[in-house]
Structures are given as structure tokens and as C-alpha cells.
Amino acid sequence: MFELSLIGVGAGDPEHLTLQAARALNAADLVLIPRKGAEKADLADLRRAICAAVLTNPATVLAEFDLPTRDETIADYAARVALWHDAIAEAWVATLRAHPGARRGALLVWGDPSLYDSTLRIAQRVGRLLPLRVSVIPGVTAIQALAAAHAIPLNEVGAPVLITTGRRLRRDGWPPCADTLVVMLDGDCAFRALDPGGVRIWWGAYLGMAHQILMAGALAEVGADILAARAAARARHGWIMDTYILRRAAPPPRTAAP
Description:
Radius of gyration: 20 Å
CATH superfamily of the largest domain: Tetrapyrrole methylase, N-terminal domain
Distance between the termini: 73 Å
CATH architecture of the largest domain: 3-Layer(aba) Sandwich
Number of helices: 7
Order of helices and strands: EHEHEHEHEHEHEEEHE
Helix content: 25-40%
Number of domains: 2
Strand content: 15-25%
Number of strands: 10
Structural class: alpha/beta
């Protein structure tokens, strides 16, 4: 039985690592380091930097492997993702089997494995291929990092917050059940499809990293600036990870008819 710890490492700042995460890393025989190609080499570099900063166990081995890419030619989104997850699971298994003496492993996950992250689903696939016991070490989410960077609370007093994806926001529009939205996994800036009247946005990219970018304001005023900054940053780095909070002004309270 192989024991695998999925360790949330925050949004990019090595200081987001918890003491629990550091202990789990040092208890591992093997730390899996996925590589996402030359354009995203700094993601692997950050994982290496975290390991260099906290590992004190000389027996722990860093096992790097190339992460399969998603086949964007498959029209059905669910099928595209499922096949991609299958390929990633097979890459994990091949890496583990290349180190037959290892019994405890760790995989560093951006943010937290519980929130819009597929690591747990991939681990379930791995469990079908070899005996596996999974544990999760929670980390700082991108949502926490974004709210902290802008020094704002996520919710209005007594009001709900809805976490959604760019795909759902673009398809369904603003959900009626909340005036505050957290939008993740948005590669196409779905806020462009909204009526910007009365909406504020707090946007952040590369949260916790040295090249973090933050912008905020009325959506009607800063939306175009965010689009331009995002495009320039993506061209400069070859990739981008960003998220944003939208808040719609509450309608004025109704007054009773005289």
C-alpha cells in the first residue's frame, strides 16, 4: 500500500506552506514534481524552491515527470478532461513504479486540493491501478490570497458568496442567489459578457508570486485595463493563473406604499 499526501502549498508564495505540510514533506520518501513544459517551467521551479526551503530529510527523493497535455481537439469538454485525467494518472503510476522502494509520497498542489482542483479525482484513478491510501493537507487557496492581497472581506454582512467558473458565468450569466461571486478557471474573461453597471471587480494574477498583479475598481472603468494587463502578462510569461471577485451593488430597499 503506497501512501500519498496531497499537499496544498498556497498560491505561489513559499511562505504559505503550513507546518503540517512541511512535516508531511519530510516524512515522504518521494516528492512528485510535474513539469508542464518550458513555458511553465517556473511552476516546477517554485515546487523545487519549496522543497529546498523545507526538506531536511536527506532520504527524500524529488521525482520529476512530464505532465500530459489536454487534447483540445476533442469537442466534448467532459470527455476531453476525463481522457486528460486518465493520462495524468498513468504518468503518476509510471513515476511511482520507477521508485519501487518508496512507500510514502507527496504531491504539491497549488492552493488547496479541495477547491476547483482535480488532483483528488486523478488520485482515485491511480487507486484503481495500484494499492493507494490518500491523505490531504489543506493549503491557502487562491481565493484567500486574492482577498488578502486586496484587503477585503469576501462577503457583505450576512450575505452569501458563490464560487463559480468562467465557463458557467459566460453560459448562465450572473447567478441570482448571490451578489458576490468568486470566478475561477476563466481563460476567456467571462466578465466581458456581463452588464458592468453597479459591479466592482477585484482581480489578481500570479497570486503570491514575485510577479503578482492586482487591479480593482468599477468593472465599467477597469475591465478593459484588466484585459490588456492579462494579455501582456500572458505574452511575457507564456502562461497565466488568475482569479477575480465580482460584487454587485445591492438594490435599494423597497419602501411600503403610502
